[in-house]
């Protein structure tokens, strides 16, 4: 930090420098005569002009009596000085002349004469800095509020957006889990990218990651979806330039990467395809091209990676010896594109490299070295807003910042990268594609939907969860003693009747009946029971595969015959008669995964 940044150049008050506001997480001008704090590095862009030196003038805006003698203060404000505040992002009437220049520092006064003692700036902890500034996960760039309406508008102008065509939830919310689709395309647009071959590519879903952040923000899973996985692509209603909607027909048994680019498909079609595969409704998408990797890696002054062996891949142009390296720009792009020199040379091996790169990038983004460096944060804001295409619901810097603040609550040690479980395509002699391993995938998708972490996480609200779990502890009734009325609140036609038939014919719960549709649909299946029916409720939970949270103790209710009966209401999580509702507590054996806070050397 230079002399001006320390408040020693030209007697400029350090309170006029760009500083980090711990209340908002924004870099802004501090206009009040507050206690001195260490200012960030100089060179931070912002819509302001420097104040004229003594004796100089500025056309149309010169100050009268620029010396201290003409600027006596009353109540902490100079007489005659206009009261102008720093325009904040999203404010009105922002202009360069609205931000006052730096004030001259008062001559130093002895402490005994009433001068104020310097207050030592408080040292922020890493976690508090993350809370202030927001988190950047994968290619999610948190826009730093640098103060100044013009700069806010400049960043907004950088953003390219596309409609989600109704494929998403309508936007993330602070009171539920967040699901973001990150798509890396193989489109060769942009400076210096034509030399990578396939110059005319429309840009397919070459790298796709579903980022799921739990409702309580205690854990997250970043799920990679192989581009060569054979799947069905649904029909995709897509908004056209003239405002009309065109339905792009779906395709069966094709590569997943054809969900984008092929047949004029947009990112919203990739969203629909992922939802169809996983059962997870997405909030937003972000699309990055080759330039995103180059510019973001350079903005953080390089990403640390590790190689267990020498790599020389002429196709990706990556040539690195074994060991640890810091890579950026073209070299970073070559790293995430290479596959012929690692693993078995296929796309699954490349996914491992990409996960390693993204994990390291996130560690760098969330480090104090980045978060407390205004120059880096500005570079990231510029690079991110220029390199990404986002859905129109978050095509605004402040919305991106709000999203980043939510993601920033996550501890990196509880983020796990995983790969969708797949097998070689049995229909091929020469293995070029893969197919979904349905059994393992269903377990993994279920864990994500239920916010079950793939890492060992210290759960929030531990006491409450322990009390809920205790509902499953205790004796069980015999199936023939379980009396239950079944209602359909799942939205799936015939669910109650199918469940009744299965309970009676397969499980021996003969004292059961189905009473049609519930008054309203529910997201989760529930069992309401009285205090004297706890044994029956536990047995029913075992049979249905229900979590403890599904059991709702209350008052006994009577059925049509006047007998006490539990009430089972099927919710949207109902998968079918005899199919367990609750997610498994452990990840399926053999799935490819890595924890984001650990460094893994590529082999």
Structure notes:
The chain has 603 residues and is α/β, with parallel strands linked by helices. The chain has two domains: 326 residues, Aminopeptidase (3-Layer(aba) Sandwich), CATH 3.40.630.190; 105 residues, Alpha-Beta Plaits. It contains 13 helices and 28 strands. The strands form eight sheets. The chain has an eight-stranded mixed β-sheet, with helices on both faces. Strands 22, 23, 24, 25, 26 and 27 form a six-stranded mixed β-sheet that branches. Strand 1 and strand 2 form a beta hairpin. It is elongated, with a radius of gyration of 29 Å. The N terminus is likely disordered.
The largest sheet, given as strand count, sense and whether it forms a barrel, is: 8 strands, mixed
The class by helix and strand makeup works out as: alpha/beta
| Whole-angstrom Rg | 29 Å
Whole-number tally of structural domains: 2
Percent of residues in β-strands: 15-25%
What is the count of β-strands? 28
End-to-end CA span: 41 Å
**Overall average pLDDT:** 74
Shape: elongated
Indicate the CATH topology of the largest domain: Aminopeptidase
Q: What's the architecture of the largest domain, going by CATH? A: 3-Layer(aba) Sandwich
């Amino acid at each position: 930090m230079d002399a001006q940044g320390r408040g020693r150049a030209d007697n400029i008050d350090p309170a006029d420098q760009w500083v980090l506001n711990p209340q908002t997480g924004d870099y802004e001008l501090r206009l009040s005569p507050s206690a001195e704090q260490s200012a960030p590095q100089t060179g931070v862009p912002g819509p302001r002009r420097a104040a004229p030196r003594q004796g100089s003038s500025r056309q149309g805006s010169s100050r009268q009596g620029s010396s201290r003698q003409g600027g006596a203060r009353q109540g902490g404000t100079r007489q005659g000085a206009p009261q102008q505040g720093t325009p904040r992002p999203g404010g009105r009437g922002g202009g360069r002349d609205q931000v006052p220049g730096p004030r001259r520092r008062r001559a130093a006064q002895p402490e005994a004469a009433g001068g104020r003692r310097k207050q030592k700036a408080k040292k922020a902890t890493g976690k508090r800095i993350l809370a202030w500034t927001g988190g950047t996960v994968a290619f999610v760039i948190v826009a730093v509020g640098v103060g100044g309406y013009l700069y806010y508008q400049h960043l907004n102008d950088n953003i390219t957006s596309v409609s989600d065509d109704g494929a998403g939830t309508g936007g993330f919310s602070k009171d539920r889990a967040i699901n973001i689709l990150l798509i890396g395309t193989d489109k060769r647009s942009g400076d210096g990218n034509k030399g990578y071959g396939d110059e005319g590519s429309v840009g397919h879903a070459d790298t796709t990651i579903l980022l799921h952040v739990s409702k309580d923000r205690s854990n997250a899973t970043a799920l990679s979806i192989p581009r060569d996985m054979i799947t069905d692509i649904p029909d995709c209603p897509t908004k056209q330039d003239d405002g009309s909607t065109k339905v792009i027909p779906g395709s069966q048994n094709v590569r997943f990467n054809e969900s984008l680019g092929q047949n004029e498909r947009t990112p919203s079609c990739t969203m629909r395809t992922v939802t169809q595969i996983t059962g997870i409704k997405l909030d937003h998408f972000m699309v990055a091209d080759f330039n995103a990797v180059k510019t973001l890696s350079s903005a953080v002054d390089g990403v640390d990676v590790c190689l267990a062996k020498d790599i020389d891949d002429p196709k990706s142009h990556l040539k690195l010896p074994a060991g640890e390296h810091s890579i950026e720009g073209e070299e970073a792009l070559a790293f995430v594109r290479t596959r012929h020199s690692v693993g078995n040379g296929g796309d699954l091996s490349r996914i491992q490299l990409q996960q390693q790169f993204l994990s390291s990038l996130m560690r760098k983004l969330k480090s104090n070295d980045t978060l407390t460096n205004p120059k880096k944060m500005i570079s990231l804001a510029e690079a991110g807003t220029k390199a990404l295409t986002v859905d129109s619901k978050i095509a605004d810097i402040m919305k991106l910042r709000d999203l980043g603040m939510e993601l920033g609550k996550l501890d990196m040690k509880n983020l796990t990268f995983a790969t969708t479980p797949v097998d070689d395509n049995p229909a091929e002699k020469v293995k070029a594609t893969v197919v979904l391993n349905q059994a393992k995938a269903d377990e993994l998708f279920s864990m994500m939907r239920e916010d079950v972490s793939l890492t060992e996480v210290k759960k929030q609200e531990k006491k409450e969860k322990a009390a809920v779990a205790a509902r499953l502890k205790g004796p069980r009734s015999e199936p023939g003693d379980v009396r239950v009325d079944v209602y359909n609140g799942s939205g799936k036609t015939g669910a109650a009747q199918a469940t009744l038939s299965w309970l009676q014919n397969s499980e021996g719960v003969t004292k059961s009946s189905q009473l049609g549709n519930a008054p309203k649909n529910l997201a989760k299946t529930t069992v309401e029971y009285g205090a004297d029916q706890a044994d029956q409720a536990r047995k029913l939970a075992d049979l249905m595969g229900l979590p403890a949270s599904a059991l709702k103790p209350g008052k006994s209710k009577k059925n049509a015959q006047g007998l006490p009966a539990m009430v089972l209401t099927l919710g949207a999580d109902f998968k079918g008669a005899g199919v367990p509702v609750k997610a498994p507590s452990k990840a399926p054996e053999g799935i490819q995964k890595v924890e984001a806070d650990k460094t893994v050397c590529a082999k």
